[in-house]
Specification:
Blueprint (H helix, E strand, L loop, with lengths): L2 H4 L2 H5 L4 H33 L7 H39 L9 H45 L1
Helix pairs in contact: 3-4, 3-5, 4-5
Length: 151
């Protein structure tokens, strides 16, 4: 496998074990859920800012923004759990790469297993980075709306 092939997730996922594919499915569900919840929070924040000059009471808006902050905290906890589960799965997968069968040299098989699972880990870490960045941006927007309402 060439370096350019290793950057293509379609080539990597064909060779992964069942545990890695199961975790990938779990992370896809978590990602969809996080996108859905973040979109709902952003739409509500936009509605609050749009109604800023309407008949909204500051206390009601403050309470709603605090509830959004709690929802963001729950999403943060879900991402943290997903990351810890990823670490656990990765360590199991790296341990599995020491089980060698076949005609190749044992060291080469171990290094190929590491190469495969490090590529998998890089893809997953990129997903975590993007989810964390989105969560951070929405959290900053909610904090901005909170300070806007206090004025």
């Amino acid at each position: 496998m060439y370096l350019s092939d290793s950057l293509n997730p379609a080539n990597v996922y064909k060779q992964l074990s069942g545990l890695a594919l199961l975790y990938t499915l779990f992370l896809m569900v978590v990602t969809i859920y996080v996108f859905y919840r973040l979109a709902a929070i952003v739409l509500r924040l936009l509605a609050i800012v749009g109604e800023r000059y309407g008949n909204l009471h500051a206390a009601a808006v403050q309470l709603e923004v605090e509830q959004m902050q709690q929802k963001l905290g729950s999403l943060r906890q879900l991402l943290l759990f997903s990351f810890y589960l990823f670490c656990f799965c990765l360590f199991i997968l790296l341990r599995i790469s020491f089980h060698t069968f076949g005609e190749k040299i044992v060291g080469v098989q171990i290094l190929e297993g590491f190469y495969l699972y490090f590529g998998f880990a890089a893809d997953i870490c990129l997903i975590f980075l993007s989810l964390h960045t989105l969560l951070w941006a929405v959290s900053k927007d909610a904090t901005f709306v909170r300070t806007l309402v206090k004025k």
